[in-house]
């Protein structure tokens, strides 16, 4: 088995930041959007670059400069017993751990195999200890391959940032490394937490109630990591590149009269149907559930600005009977159910937010497919000055039926990563490929 050797671990501090000012400590309490994610393992994101390696000094100095704008990522997640809040504690002395490593793995195989080598991927992302607060928010690992190539791995606490916020940071860091620190001089410092999410009159109290439900022993956090790691080791993953032409074809097939469905809707619907057929669900009246996370940034009133870093995701669940999805008009029916849920959730974005944790728990065992990510995440446009990545992966995919979307290499392309048991992956691949090409 290929090895990864750690050569050095250093602390990258923040370049002087006007956002932090001269105050010794800035506390950013979590919003109710953030609190939901406290017990979950960190987001682990990996990018594999085939080109020459940028020098470590450039990577470190540009990281320091980028943290000037994204300073909560260098902070510590901290429990405040006097109020029952959890906050990101930020100070001028904050840092991110930067791990330097090397590997004798076959880079070309890791970057090109259709079936993922998850064990190898896990060694290319850093560990982040979040069991007891205060805990670090983020760590970075840079691994050089003896065969050529570079891996940049991230681990970040999901209670502080969601996928959109993380990609914003990665883009800024890559730009500063490629073009110089002055290239991000006009990037606005991020804002975060319940001090910004003032869209609900009881928001602070809801956040505290959620924290008591999901982390009743604070500052100790009983993580779901062990159970997830056990399930993860038994699953298989595969990535499907979906071209713009394929997407347009699916949209045309799904179209109902003047109703044109979105890219997210048609891909989610097609994946949902493929899962149902793969699993061979025989009872036509059995209810099947598609879960997805709706980004609420632009749906709040007033909407959040682009520099909001924290979580802003609402859990949504579209439901249909098996027979509705496997009949001839199944694609249109699936799209209709997903759109109905998006429209309903958009009309009352914060409706029932005090029960989002309960709703998620009630639906977890019923969900057949859970869609995360977004085709708007420009994963393959990231360039640290050595060219774009040949593969990007969300390593922290933990459950059967999880699906992750990101923008692909080509214009209009989308990459869809699917997590399934080995016994179902081959059949799903055939079914999904067949549905794509109808």
Automatic annotation (TrEMBL):
It comes from the Eukaryota. Keywords: Acyltransferase, Transferase. Transmembrane segments: none annotated. One of its GO terms (molecular function) is acyltransferase activity, transferring groups other than amino-acyl groups. It holds the Pfam family Transferase. InterPro entries: CAT-like_dom_sf, Plant_metabolite_acyltrans. This is Anthocyanin 5-aromatic acyltransferase-like. It comes from Dioscorea cayennensis subsp. rotundata. The lineage of its organism: Eukaryota, Viridiplantae, Streptophyta, Embryophyta, Tracheophyta.
């Amino acid at each position: 088995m290929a090895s990864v050797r750690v050569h050095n671990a250093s602390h990258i501090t923040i370049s002087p930041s006007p956002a932090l000012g001269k105050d010794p400590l800035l506390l950013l309490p979590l919003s109710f959007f953030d609190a939901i994610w406290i017990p979950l393992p960190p987001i682990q994101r990996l990018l594999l670059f085939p080109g020459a390696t940028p020098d470590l000094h450039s990577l470190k100095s540009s990281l320091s400069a980028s943290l000037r704008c994204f300073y909560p990522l260098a902070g510590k997640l901290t429990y405040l017993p006097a109020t029952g809040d959890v906050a990101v504690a930020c100070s001028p002395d904050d840092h991110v751990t930067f791990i330097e490593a090397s590997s004798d793995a076959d880079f070309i195989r890791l970057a090109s195999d259709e079936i993922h080598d998850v064990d190898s991927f896990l060694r290319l992302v850093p560990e982040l200890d979040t069991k007891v607060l205060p805990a670090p928010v983020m760590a970075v690992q840079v691994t050089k391959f003896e065969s050529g190539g570079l891996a940049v791995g991230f681990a970040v606490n999901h209670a502080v940032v969601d996928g959109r916020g993380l990609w914003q940071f990665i883009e800024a860091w890559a730009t500063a490394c490629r073009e110089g620190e002055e290239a991000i001089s006009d990037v606005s410092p991020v804002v975060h937490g319940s001090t910004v999410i003032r869209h609900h009159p009881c928001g602070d109290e809801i956040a505290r109630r959620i924290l008591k439900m999901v982390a009743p022993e604070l500052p100790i956090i009983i993580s779901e990591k062990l159970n997830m790691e056990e399930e993860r080791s038994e699953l298989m993953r595969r990535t499907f590149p979906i071209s713009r032409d394929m997407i347009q074809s699916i949209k045309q097939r799904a179209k109902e009269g003047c109703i044109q469905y979105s890219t997210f809707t048609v891909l989610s619907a097609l994946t949902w149907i493929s899962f149902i057929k793969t699993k061979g669900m025989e009872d036509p009246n059995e209810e099947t559930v598609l879960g997805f996370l709706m980004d609420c940034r632009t749906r709040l009133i007033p909407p959040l600005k682009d520099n909001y870093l924290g979580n802003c995701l609402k859990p949504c669940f579209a439901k249909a009977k098996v027979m509705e999805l496997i009949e001839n008009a199944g694609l249109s029916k699936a799209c209709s159910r997903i759109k109905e849920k998006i429209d309903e959730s958009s009309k009352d974005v914060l409706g029932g937010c005090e029960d989002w944790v309960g709703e998620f728990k009630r639906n977890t065992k019923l969900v057949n497919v859970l869609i995360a990510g977004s085709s708007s995440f420009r994963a393959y446009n990231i360039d640290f000055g050595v060219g774009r990545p040949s593969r990007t992966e969300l390593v922290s995919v933990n459950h059967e039926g999880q699906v992750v979307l990101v923008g692909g290499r080509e214009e209009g392309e989308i990459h869809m990563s699917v997590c399934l048991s080995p016994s179902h992956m081959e059949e799903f691949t055939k079914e999904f490929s067949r549905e794509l090409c109808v």
